[in-house]
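Hi V.,

You were right to ask for the full record rather than a summary. Here it is.
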Amino acid sequence: MVADDERPARAVLGEMIEGGSEAVLVGEAETGPEAVSIIERLRPDLALLDLEMPEMDGLEVARVVKAETMPLFAFVTAYDEYAARAFEVNAVDYLLKPVAPERLQETFRRVRERLAKPGWREDHRTNLRLAMGEYERARAQWVDRLPVRKGEDILMVPTDQIVSAVAEGELLHLTTVRNEEHVICYRLKDLEARLDPARFVRLSRGTLANTRMIARFSPMPGGTYVAIMTNGQELSVSRSQARILRSTLLRL
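Predicted structure:
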C-alpha cells in the first residue's frame, strides 16, 4: 500500500508498482489515520509511507499500527540526511523523491528476502524502533502531540496534557491531566529526546514528569522525594534525580 498526502505522488508510485513488477497495489491513503486503517484491514506485505504528512506523519503511522498486522515499512521523502543515516544503518528502507523505478524494484527485492526469513516481523520492529529513535534524536524537534490507540480510534494527545510517562519494558504508560491512561510502544529515552526538556523532567530511571503538573514534593527518608502531581498521581523520585532536582526545580 502507498500513503502520501499528494495525489500525483501516489499516482506515480502506483503506476510503477503495477507496471513493472510482480507487486500488487492493494490500497492508497491520503492521511496517516487512513493508512493505519488500510494496513490493519488489508495486511499488505509492504507499506510505502511518506515521511512527512500533515495530521500524522509516516513515523507516527508505524508506531500505532497493531503489532500483529505490521508490514515491512519503506519511507519515501525528499532528501533528509538524518533519515538517510538512521534508516540505512538500521536496515530500514528509505526511498528518495522522485522515486526511480529501479530503486523501487530494489526495495521489492529486499522485501521478498526479508519475508522469507522466520521472525521477520520482530526483526523489522526492532530495526524500525532503533531507526526512529536515532532519527528523532538527530532532528531534536520537540513534539506537541502523540498518537495513541483507543480501540479502533487514534487519538492525538497534546503533550502539554500529559502528566507522566512511566516505562514498563518497551511500553510506556501515559497519564493525562484527566487521569486518562494510554499505552504506547516507545522507549522512554526516545520519548524524552522528543519532549521539551524545559517541560519534562526525569524523576527516576523509568519515569518522566511534566514539570508544570507537579504540585509539590514530599521528602522521604534517605534524601529522596515523592512528587505529587496535580491529578493526584504520586511518583517516586530516585536518589540521583533528587540531587539534580535540588539544584534545579527545588532551588530557591
